[in-house]
Amino acid sequence: MNHLPQAWGRPRDDVYGQYNSAYLPSSHHNPTTHTQSPIVTGTSVIALKYSTGVVIAADNLASYGSLARFTDVHRLKPFNRKAIVGFGGDVSDMQYLTRLLKGLDTQENYADGSVAEVDSDGDEVEGEEKPHMSAKNLHAYLSKVLYKRRTDFNPLWNALLVAGLDEDDKPFLAFADLLGTTYSSPSLATGFGAHLAQPILRRVVPDEKASEKLSREDAVKAVRECMKVLFYRDARSMNEYSIAVVDREGMKLKESEKLEGQSWAFAEGIKGYGTQTV
Amino acid sequence: MTSIGTGYDLSNSVYSPDGRNFQVEYAVKAVENGGTAIGIRCKDGVVLALEKLVTSKLQKKDANRRIATVDRNVGIVSAGLLPDGHHLVSRARDEASSWRSTYKAPIPVTSLADRMGAYVQMYTTSSGVRPFGVTAILGGWDAETEVDVDGVVGKGPSTGAGGKTKGAKEGGAYLYMIEPSGAYWGYYGAATGKGRQAAKAELEKLDLDPKKGATISLEEGVKEAARIIYVAHEESKDKEFELEMTWVSAVSGPTKGKHEEVPKALREEAERLAKKSLEGEDEEDDGKMEE
Q1: Catalytic annotation, pick one of A32, A33, A35, A41
Q2: Calpha distance B216→B227 (Å, rounded)
Q3: What are the chain A neighbours of B104 within 8 Å (beta carbons)?
Q4: Nearest-by-CA chain A residue for B93
Q5: Which DSSP string corresponds to chain A?
Q6: Residue-range definition of the domain harbouring residue B201
Q7: Count of Cβ atoms closer than 10 Å to residue B44 Cβ
């Protein structure tokens, strides 16, 4: 069945010819389109809170359906020193949100704050102004944008993670998606990551208390392990990814990390894999 | 050349018999009463400085920043009616934002100056409005490195964005000054406000013309800008003032292409040298008088 209203109740096209919408009132020349479907998409984004910050990672692939189309796509977008957003879902909607956030960041920079940035010892950092927006503020803003678009039946087809520090410089991590759904947890993942990576991350960090005890090294190790698992099992993933760590001292973003320690040895024991001629 | 514009000076946009819009000329008077503002185009950036005359002892020091940022890499300082200056900056920000929205790239400083000039000129064409009571000095740096398109996904072609001449040097420092008439020119050194005569004389003494091979570095520019403001302040000796200075450098320089306030330490050093240089001049003068 053709679900679009303009296809119902009219005389048949093959008998009477295609309907000419120019005869409709001017406000109805172009039919209203509603929910779209995503075209070029990114897969999972995963993130984990640790004692003094957050680790977030996403692979560098943008798929065109089942085609692994673009392999140099960076889906982790830094906002300011305190926040980074990882996008899954439609890439053109990711671009729209990136541009929107850039404009927001420029506007925030105009405000006459003059509040000096304070480092972990409590001393003022020379020449640095405290960013006005924390990761928490950014997540609130994005949630509102996404929910508004869903209410207009014109969603931004993404599932995103906002990672960084809140106003008190404590680790912050939250999720938002095309429906306007939001939630927060010490470990989060979008897409396939929610099924494949979350169980692993939850074993490492079952609750907030465990997250406050976790070291940076262990957090990065867990995230890298999950990226490997996702490459094994997610058919729309890639072996190259971006990973970022945000803490009080700043943000480190690495954009061309390769997966290490993969084992495809199991293939030897299965018919049809590898160099078998069965 | 002041003359009485009797009868032709009551309405904006009205020509006098000798072809002048007197309201615009009176607007210039408002600018001449304001604190001195200067801009210096250096080899690797632009410095903007402002003599902020303190109107009340109750105002917090280092608050009430008046040199505004447009987008990331452009600064505007204005002399004259403050609210008019704010409005002009607000429009400049809108222009920069709309350029970015269309072209997905930052607005070139030349284009921004052009749009601001056109906007200011519009206020000289209707008797329902009055001309802007500010002269704005616009300083910025167009990036010399390849700048990614907004929201860029992937690497793009290996040759970068199209339409480039091979081997040509991109970007650079730009300094413009827009007057209440809407006229604007590019400058190596610009000054406006009460102490502009003294400031211009000092600026001319500096070698700033790159075509003649002489330019100054940003650090020198900061020191000179502070000194020139102190010299220009002699016009308003009886009032207290605060020095506000900002700078934009190349992407490879201290501000990484962004328009920022000059760091406190550098500014205080420049002020110290400026005061010393003024005292030096006073001693010279005293010496001459004794002779």
Answers
A1: A35
A2: 15
A3: 99
A4: A107
A5: ---SGGGSSSPPHHHH----GGGS-GGGSSPPP-----SEEE--EEEEE-SSEEEEEEES-EEETTEEEES----EEEEETTEEEEEEEEHHHHHHHHHHHHHHHHHHHHS---PEEE-TTSPEEEEEEPPS--HHHHHHHHHHHHHHHHHTT----EEEEEEEE-TTS-EEEEEEETT--EEE-SEEE-THHHHHTHHHHHHH-SSHHHHHH--HHHHHHHHHHHHHHHHHH-TT--SEEEEEEEETTEEEEEEEEEP-S---GGGGGSTTSTT---
A6: 22-290
A7: 20
**Contact criterion met (CB < 8 Å) for A103 and B97:** yes
Q: What region does A226 belong to: left with phi over 0, alpha with psi -120 to 50, or beta? A: alpha
In a domain, B7, yes or no: no
B15 is a domain residue: no
Number of domains in chain B: 1
- pLDDT tens for each residue of B160-215: 666 667 777 888 999 999 999 999 999 999 999 999 999 999 999 998 887 887 78
Active site residue A151: no
């673009």: which residue's tokens?
A70
Q: What is the pLDDT of residues A170-199, one digit of tens each?
A: 999 999 999 999 999 999 999 999 999 999
Rounded to two decimals, the pTM is 0.88
Give residues with Cβ within 8 angstroms of A219, minimum separation 6: A48, A49, A50, A55, A204, A245
pLDDT, tens digit (0-9, with 9 covering 90-100), for A237-252: 999 999 999 999 999 9
Q: Which residues of A touch B265 (CB under 8 A)?
A: 126
Domain ranges in chain A are: 40-109+132-258
Taking the domain A40-109+132-258, which CATH number applies? Answer: 3.60.20.10
Out of A98, A102, A114, closest to residue B62 by CB: A114
Lowest mean pLDDT segment, chosen from A200-204, B7-11, B48-52:
B7-11
